[in-house]
Amino acid sequence: MERKRFALVTGASGDIGRAIALKLAEEGYNLYLHYNQNEIAMDFLIEELRHYNLAVVKIQSDFSQPFSYKKIVDSIHDIDLLVFADGKSHYGLITDITDEESNLLIQQLLTTPFLLVKSLVPKMVSQKSGSIIFVTSIWGEVGASCEVLYSILKGGQNSFVKALSKELAPSSIRVNAVSPGAIRTKMLNRFSTVELHDISDEIPMGRLGEPNEIADVILFLSSDKSSYITGQVIGVNGGWYTK
Question: Domain 5-236 class?
Answer without folding.
Answer: alpha beta
